[in-house]
Amino acid sequence: MEAFTEVNIFEMIFRTTVAFTTILILARIIGKKQLSQFTFFHYVTGITFGSIAAEISSKADGVFIDGLIGLIWWTVLTLLVSFITLHSTKARVLIDDKPMILVKNGVIMNQALKKARLHTDELTMLLREQGIFSVDEVHYALFETNGELSVIKKPAHSPATKPDVKADITIPPFVPTEVIANGKIHSKNLLELDLTEEWLRNKLRKKKIQNIEDVYYAQVLENGSLYVSLKNSNGNSSS
Q1: CB neighbours of 137 closer than 8 A, spacing ≥ 6?
Q2: What is the pLDDT of residues 80-100, one digit of tens each?
Q3: pLDDT value at position 178?
Q4: CB-based contacts of 40, cutoff 8 Å, min separation 6
Q5: Are 125 and 104 in contact (CB under 8 A)?
Q6: Beta-carbon neighbour count of residue 226 at 10 Å?
Q7: Facing residues of 217 across strands?
Q8: Eight-state DSSP code of residue 160
Q9: pTM (2 d.p.)
Q10: Long-range contacts of 229-234 (CB under 8 A, 24+ apart)
Q11: Exposed e or buried b for every residue in 124-137, given b needs 16+ CB within 10 A?
Q12: CA pair distance 56, 13, nearest whole angstrom
């Protein structure tokens, strides 16, 4: 009985390891998509992947290879659907649906709301999540295929932009980038910024930092200054 139990345990570990590795590889093949961008199709696909993987790893009396074949074939079907929707607008609309206008010039479109299976409380909740508490402020509100609400405010309620207030709109020369982490220089990041280690060391010397090993974290900021946080230090600085 004990030997049988040990065999079951090792078989379960093996099944789980193979299922885990397989789903990682297949997920990489399918491609990456942020959770907030998932359509209903991608949501169902993700649940199915998890369910099949769970069956493979937990059902000791099931046929192991059958579960793997099912997982791989589901991946093939998912890739096929993605290929079709990528090249066919009609198929994309059929599978993922299309955005619907729920509010137009401050007026709620009742029929569109019913088609989206939403009620006014849900609509106003989605608006409040974007800091909009009055439907009258909305010029257009589109219900996206991933369940998110995209909103264009009326001009009178739109926030002022930098050109509106005649603020500086010069494009910054750098993107904030990590150049030192835990005392080690990220040479690749410096190269992408067209900066050198000598430039970095000069910046550190201006802060009276002689050893790279003393730096816990350093980041090149948008204006070309350097943010530095030292090891065993409660302060930080930029210059």
Answers
A1: 106, 153, 154, 157
A2: 887 887 888 888 778 777 889
A3: 95
A4: 96, 97, 145
A5: no
A6: 23
A7: 181, 229
A8: P
A9: 0.55
A10: 231/183
A11: eebbeeeebeebeb
A12: 11
